[in-house]
Amino acid sequence: MARGQPRLVCSWGNVARGTHSVYRLSSRFEDFPSLPAHTSILPFGNGRSYGDSCLNVGGALLDMRSMDRFIHFDAQRGTLRCEAGVQLGEILRIVAPAGWLPCVLPGTQYVTVGGAIANDVHGKNHHRDGSFGCHVTQFELLRSNGERLLCSPQTNSDALAATIGGLGLTGVITWAELQLTRVAGPWMAVESVRCRDLGELLALTSASSQSHAYTVAWVDCAARRKRLGRGILQRANPADDGGAARPAASRRWLAVPFTPPVSMLNPAMTRVFNALHYTRHSAPMRSIQHYQQFFFPLDGIRHWNRLYGPRGFYQYQCAVPRDGAGDSIRRLLEATAASGEGSSLAVLKFFGERPSPGLLSFPRPGVTLALDFPNRGARLERLFARLDAIVAEAGGRLYPAKDARMPASLFRAGYPQWQTFSRFVDARCSSSFWQRVMADA
Amino acid sequence: MRKILIIGATSAIAEASARVWANRGAALYLVGRDPARVAAIAADLRIRGAAIVAHEAQDLNDFAAHEAMLDRAALALGGFDIVLIAHGRLEDQRACEESVDLAMQEIRINALSVVAVCTRIAPRLSAQGGGTLAVLSSIAGDRGRRSNYVYGSAKALVSAYLSGLRQRLHSSGVQVLTIKPGPVDTPMTAALRKGPLWASPQSVAAGIVRGIERRRDVIYLPGFWRPIMWIVRGIPEGLFKRIRL
User: Fold this and answer.
1) Which of the residues B29, B149, B151, B161 is marked catalytic?
2) Exposed, middle or buried by CB within 10 Å (0-12, 13-18, 19+), for A205?
3) Which of B16, B22, B34, B167 shows the shortest CA–CA distance to B89?
4) Which of A123, A126, A200, A298 has the most CB atoms less than 10 A away?
C-alpha cells in the first residue's frame, strides 16, 4: 500500500510553498490513489507554475513525473501519444529529428504534457495556431471514483473543455495524444526590430502577425513619457532551408548554484540593463537560431528563478480584449513605471482569434502583457491592486499559472464560465489556488 | 548493436537502465510479470530508439519455464551481450515474521528464482566465451538487520552465489556484476518513509551501465555505501545486536 510522503514543495516563483503529503502514480495502469478521508489531492507535474495553482498546501500532491512513457509515434501523420508525465523537452528529442515539432511550445521545455494541458499554455505563435489545447486530439481522464473517461472533441467533450486549462482539478490526465506540425529543420529565421514607443510597438506587432509565424515583444518597463512602451519586437519564421548544414547550436549551460541572500534583480540594475538592451538593437538584427535557443532562451540558465533571492518573485500576466487594448496596456505600463518597482522583465504578445478549447483557458483574442517583479512585499501588492483595477475595467483576466495573489472577484470576473467549470471539479481534487479564489463562493 | 536481455523489465531500475540502452540503439528482450506493463515499456523503448524490442510476460517463480524463455530470447537477439536480472519484491518485514508462507515466498522470488535462472544463463554465456551477467543484489544483503532481514538474507544468498559464479566464469571471459544499491525511490519501496540517503532509479541505472562498461565485479550505488557497509559489516555482533537498524 503506497502512502504519502511528507515533503516541502515550492513552486517556481518561490513565493508559494508548504508541506504536502506526496503520492505518486508511476504508470497509466495504476488506480487513483486511496487517500485518508477528507484529504484532497492535486496532480503535480514539473512544478513550473509560478504561484499556488500547482500546490495544495496541507493536502496531498500526486507526483506524475515518473509516469513518462511514450505510447505511439506516427512519424507519417505526426501524431504522438504519451503518458502525461512526459516533458516537452523529451518529446522534442524524439520528434524533432523526424521533422516534427509540437504545434505550441511555451517558454520552457521543462513542463509535462499534463501540465501543458491543465494550464492550456501558449507560445509565440498564438496569433496563428492558438493554444496548446487546440492540438490535443484526445486524452484519458482518471477520476477519483475510478472512472476513466476518454475525452476528445467527439466524446466527453464537456469533460475535455473542463480539463483543458482546468488546473488539474478535474482528475488525473493519464495519457494524451498530440497533433504535431511539420518542420523543414530545427532552424528559425529570427529578426529583432526596435520600436521607439508603444504605438510603434503595437503597430509593428500587429503587422508582423500577418507575415510571421512567431512574434513576441520585449518592453523596456523603465521608459516613461514619450518613450513609454519602447521595446524590441522579435519575429520569426521557420528557416526554409532547414536541411542546410549549420554549426551545431552552441549550448552554454549555465546554472545558478544556490539562492543568493538578496535578489540580484533590483530596480536600479533593471533600469541599466533595459537601457543597454534597447540601445544594442539600434538597427534591425537578423539571425538564424536553433529552435531550442529561440523557444527556450531561459532554459540555458538552470534555476534562473533563484536570482530573485529567498523572497522569490511574482509574475503579473494579464490578457486584455482587442478593443481598447492599446489604451489598457499604456495605463498598465504607466502605473508600473510610476510605481518605481521596476519590472525586471516585461513581455508583450498578441493573442489571435482561434478560440481556446478550455472553460478556464487563459488566452483570448487581444493582447497579453507579462511583468516579472522581485517580491518586495506590501509596496508591490499596492502596485498589483492598481494593475488589477485597470485589467478589471478593461474586461481582462489574469493567468492562474502565474498567479499567487489575484483577488477572488477578479478571477470570477475574468473567467465567467467558472460556475460551469466548478461542476466538473473532482470530489477529491483541490489546490491552494482554487481554495483561494473559491473562498466564500 | 548490443543484445540485451532484461529479466524483471518492469522494475523502475531496469526500465531506467533500458532507456539508456534504447537511446544508444540496443536490441532488447524484456521479461516481466505483468503483460500490459511489459508491452507498454517495450513500446516506449522502441520510440526512444531501441533497434529491436521483443518482450514476453513470465512469472519467474515458475523455474521450469526458464529454459524455454531463455531459448526464445536467445533466438530473438542472436545471443546475449548483457543479461540484467532485476526482478524482486519487498514484503513488509513484520508480516514475514508472522507468516512462514510469506517468508518462504520472499526467499523464493528474491533468491531461489535468481539462482535458478542464473544456473541456466551461466553455461550459455560461458559457451559464447563472453558477455555480462549483471544482477541486482542489495546493501541489505551485506548484513542482516532487524528492519528487513528476510529480504536481506535472500540478497545475501544472491551476493554469495554471484561471488562463486564470478570465480567459475572468470576464465571464460564472462563478467559477473553484483549490483548493491542502497534504498531507491521506486514503486517497490512506495510504502517506506524516504530520507536523504535515497537514490533515484535514473542515477542507479547510470551506475549500472557504467559498471558494466568498466567491467567491475561489485558496485555499490551510490558509491558512498561501500565505506558505510564496510563499517556496518565490521561492527562486532555483541554490539550489533543491541543497535536498532
Assistant:
1) B151
2) buried
3) B34
4) A126
For residue B173, what is the domain's CATH number?
Answer: 3.40.50.720
pLDDT of residue A39: 94
Q: Mark out chain B residues that contact chain A at CB-CB < 8 A.
A: 12, 34, 36-37, 40-41, 43-44, 47-48, 187, 190-191, 193-194, 201
How far apart CA A313 and CA B1 sit, in angstroms, is: 49
Give which of B10, B15, B44 to mutate to test A binding, by max A Cβ within 10 Å.
B44
Side-chain half-sphere of B188: how many Cα atoms within 13 Å? 18
Nearest CB to A5: which of B43, B194, B201? B194
Domain assignment present for B114: yes
| B52: in domain | yes
Total tally of structural domains belonging to chain B: 1
CB-CB: which of B34, B41, B201 is closest to A69? B41
Residues of B within 8 A of A94 (CB-CB) are 47-48
DSSP label at B129? Answer: T
Is B29 a catalytic site residue?
Answer: no
Q: Report d(CA B152, CA B160) in Å as an integer.
A: 12
Residues A246, A252, A253, A255, CA torsion sign: negative
Side chain identity, residue A184 = A
Residue B245 lies in a domain: no
Q: What is the CATH topology of the domain spanning A70-183?
A: 3.30.465
**CB–CB of A171/A144 below 8 Å?**
yes
Domains of chain A, by residue range, sit at 70-183, 187-402
Task: Give me the DSSP letters along B167-202.
Answer: HHHHTTTEEEEEEEE--B-SGGGTTSPP-TT-B-HH
Query: What is the tens place of the pLDDT at every residue in A227-281?
Result: 898 999 999 999 876 555 565 555 556 777 788 887 777 777 777 777 777 777 7
Strands B82-85 and B131-136: parallel
What is the tens place of the pLDDT at every residue in B23-41?
999 999 999 999 999 999 9
- Neighbouring CB atoms inside 10 A of A7's CB total 12
Please tell us whether the domain made up of A187-402 is placed in CATH 3.40.462.10.
yes
Q: Can you tell me the ipTM of this complex?
A: 0.92
How many Cβ pairs within 8 Å bridge chains A and B? Answer: 37
